[in-house]
Amino acid sequence: MRQLPTACSRTRRAPTRRLAMAALALAGAIFTLGAGAQEAIRVGAFLSVTGPASFLGDPEQKTLEMYVERINAEGGVVGRKLQLFAYDDAGDAEKARTFAKRLIEQDKVDVLVGGSTTGTTMAVVPLAEQAGVPFISLAGAVVIVEPVKKWVFKTPHTDRMACEKIFVDMQARKLTRAALISGAGGFDKSMRAECLKVAPKYSIEVVADETYGASDTDMTAQLTKIKGSNAQAVLNAGFGQGPAIVTRNYRQVGLTLPLYQSHGVASHEFIKLAGPAAEGVRLPAAALLVSELLPGGDAQKPIVVAYRKGYEDKFKADVSTFGGHAYDGLMLAVHAMKAAGSTDKGKVRDALEATRAYVGTGGVVNMSAADHMGLDLSAFRMLEIKDGNWTLVK
User: Fold this and answer.
1) Contact in structure between 78 and 343 (CB atoms under 8 Å)
2) Total-model pTM
3) How many domains does the chain have?
4) Residue 41 in contact with residue 80, Cβ under 8 Å?
5) What is the 3 state secondary structure string of 358-373?
6) How far apart are CA 182 and CA 185, in angstroms?
7) d(Cα 234, Cα 181) in Å, to the nearest integer?
8) Using one digit for the tens of pLDDT, what is the confidence trace for 132-154?
9) Which CATH number belongs to the domain containing residue 347 in this structure?
């Protein structure tokens, strides 16, 4: 009996392609149901596959497609195949909201796994909450899960955790005065606020606080001000092109202080964009980037090594933590469906909240009614760029 091809719809871009793919999915579903099989489990995704956040959305999309195909080849979940409905929001919050509304109301998805950025995620949170659809975000800001929303979960470490991990490292290096520079995006603003909030807890004094715009291509003015301060280290809260520009300008103005970046740049793309200026930069990130450097007894090693090999073999591209966030989002949904024994949205939500000891690319997840992320500070690894590659700070 012929199966529904991979039950995986590609990212929607052009209207004609959307219509064609929708018709194909409908025809395939009718054929499958007519053959006596159960209807596919519908996984909805809105991702920033193109646009300024494509370095997030592209590996996320590829990861979801790869693992939906693999899970289906292994027999599916609770006796049913998965069908992926994925839309490209290009990093636009309004598009994300429109696509999420379509996923919920027209595509009738069982779960949402997506939201590459904090902005696109937060635009969809009210829709997921109102519709009662489990939503696993792939974005970083703590505001996504604090305060706790009944139907909303997330996989990446939060911006607050990034601040804390960096400040712990500064303490170890006996650095007590930090300068902040941050972008204008939702994640950037949130991380800046979180760093300012937790700095006193780690006896870190913020002696300079500079910002730059989303379209700025030169931050030498802000960095020159920082150079004139008495800072002992600099922390750039941001993601996208901005941190690479900051890093290059940092060297151009002659700054030699330790430079920290956020986990929002945890991919080889940042190293390529920043070039030699990235040497010595430190940032907190998931174990995925240093999978081969992990000790043999590390619980995450088998997971991250397998994911990295699978991704790089299939796509001939460097792995990033962002694809790992999508892997964790999909697998958490799958685990919850298996635990619930169904795709009933309420039961899946409850199973997600009850997740314990899930080992993923981001760390060991232990969720609760008060914690819809389930990661602690130990899930972050401090990395340093040496000779154009990631190294693990001991």
Assistant:
1) yes
2) 0.86
3) 2
4) yes
5) EECCCCEECCECCECC
6) 9
7) 8
8) 999 999 999 999 999 999 999 99
9) 3.40.50.2300
